[in-house]
Amino acid sequence: MTGRKPTPSVLKMLRNNPGRRPLNPQEPEPDALSPDCPVELLDEAARAEWRRGIVPAIRGGLITAADRTLAIAHCDLWATWRSQVTEAAQHAHVIAAGPNKYPMPNPARVMANKTLQLLAKIDSDLGFSPTSRSRVTLAARTPQSRVDQFRRQKAETA
To answer: How many domains does the structure of the chain reveal?
Structure first.
């Protein structure tokens, strides 16, 4: 499939439906995600990141059960990145490699940079980056459908 990814209806509603196109009333609404730390997170740094970054996002309604895999990946990549940065800090940024002592970037730094790129992609998908966060405002959750709530708010302002 080519072209831009479709914007979820929830984000369209939070942005006040800028395109004024009809919203999908049958879009699935995932259940809330439990704030308990998943068993898949084995690293203590990953578990600490779950408590620091994911639990507040769950309580704010930003992360749901459908985002569980991305949330776990965020924590795992965070722990990996931290260990790679620690390893890279123990060596020079440029090292001499091979029999001719050819200068090359520190491999630990290269791996840390690639991990950080993956982490930034996942964080953007979760709404953790400054640009994605600036487009989202969180409202108090109500038991009624988000689409119904949006339509009610639009009717009140019209």
So the answer is: 1
